[in-house]
Specification:
Layout (H helix, E strand, L loop, with lengths): L4 E6 L3 E6 L4 E5 L4 H5 L2 H5 L2 E2 L3 E4 L4 E4 H5 L14
Antiparallel strand pairs: 1-2, 2-3, 4-5, 5-6
């Protein structure tokens, strides 16, 4: 069974994603710097796909598999101690 998003909404600190299996997942907006910097109007202009969420205007893509695995923005290189 493939799980996909049916709705997305935001509050002050959290992105809430409703899933086809009946769950709702909440993740901190801070996990996704582009969403954090986006205006409320920009956050509302998203597209749902079979595998994730897409915001064309801010160039953000979030997979449902990544959300369920607890992963935030993976485009940033991890910092290493010197």
């Amino acid at each position: 069974m493939s799980i996909s998003a049916t709705a997305v909404r935001f509050d002050e600190h959290t992105m809430w994603v409703d899933l086809t299996d009946g769950r709702t997942v909440g993740v901190p907006i801070a996990w996704f710097p582009r969403l954090l910097r986006a205006t409320p109007a920009q956050r509302q202009r998203f597209e749902l796909s079979r595998t994730g969420l897409h915001w064309e205007e801010i160039d953000e893509d979030i997979s449902i598999a990544g959300l369920l695995a607890g992963r935030g923005d993976v485009t940033k290189q991890p910092e290493h101690a010197v």
